[in-house]
């Protein structure tokens, strides 16, 4: 494959848009940042599972000093000066990690442990193949989820800065005085930015319904990420690790959720991919 692309560099999938209808993609992975032509690799994320939905319809305003805001966890924060909000309307919500498919995470880790045991057994018999680096990276992220306390929560703040919708996802256990160090996001499709929750979990967002609904896009398994890397990963300095179409762009369609695991959401994902294909392609070309 590398030799083919060296001879025909333009035949690398550039101009193509691939919809990955699977688990949520980890948008922080190295091979999923840019295409071979420098365009954003993952251009949009849609969550059909509902696992990351946060009700942010409750609106609060700061006090007379316009700085103090009490969140749903009870945490009181001082609004950083660089957070512009002409209306002084702050949409707040809260998300419990145990709501985000804890059983699914347990199933994933169980299957991962079984796979590793099989590989270890095969290695002893000198029959196993070495795990690829990108597989190891995904497995490491999967295992981290299982170590999280199930009662951990995050406060979610949504506001409009006069031009765009913004959101900040704050671990409830973090110190209130460190709020200015928490990354502010907007819709992923607009700036392709993400943050890390608890240091290791990537998270991007979509703000809907005039700020009343926040959709957190969190990878609950490594499968969607692995499929994406096989299909279109691009490593500028390590072309031997590239996927089949390093020039292609990706839309992530998350349909994995044990509480809503039916064919209906998969059909909706396919319809969404087809309907938005022309619009998304035109926007990024």
UniProtKB/TrEMBL annotation:
Residue segments, region Disordered = 109-130
| Biased amino acid composition, Basic and acidic residues | 112-130
Entry coiled-coil feature ranges = none
**GO molecular function: any one?**
serine-type endopeptidase activity
The record's section on Pfam families has: Peptidase_S8 (PF00082)
Q: Which GO terms describe its biological process?
A: proteolysis
Q: Which Gene3D superfamilies match?
A: Peptidase S8/S53 domain (3.40.50.200)
> Entry's InterPro entries?
Peptidase_S8/S53_dom (IPR000209), Peptidase_S8/S53_dom_sf (IPR036852)
Residue ranges of the Peptidase S8/S53 domain? 13-276
Name this polypeptide is given: Peptidase S8/S53 domain-containing protein
Q: Taxonomically, what lineage is the organism?
A: Eukaryota, Metazoa, Ecdysozoa, Nematoda, Chromadorea
